[in-house]
Design a protein that fits this description.
Length: 151
Amino acid sequence: MTDLAKARRKAREWTLQFLFSIDVDKNSLDELKNIELDRFWNMMEASEEAEEIRKFPKSKTEAIQKINGIFENIKDIDEKIVAFANNWTIDRMAVVDRNIIRLGAYEILFCDEIPPKVSINEAIEMAKEFADKDSTKFINGILDRIKREAE
């Protein structure tokens, strides 16, 4: 894996960790995002991730951009997800799954510099690492449908 790919992977992982933490705490109100984001990075800097943050400073910037972009577009992102998640509501999805899908959907819909196939592959890799073993098919199916509609 190239340094750029490693840096982008780190940004995605940090984005997912933040989305997960705020989703679990039910502090998803936009006005709390900045407070929670500061708290998240303070915790990360005090953890074993501190070295990774120093090693990949652009990843932190990219993660913050992704987080802000997801929050700015959460309504549209969630509407797309629900439209393609047959018989699933956002609230019924596992917290990890829904936030991996949100991140992948955000990249597909709003990040023209990232090929949709890369976003889907990265989402699947994160699902293998952080989610249930059956989540990969679910996540792939929804993101693939979002990709096809976006094309």
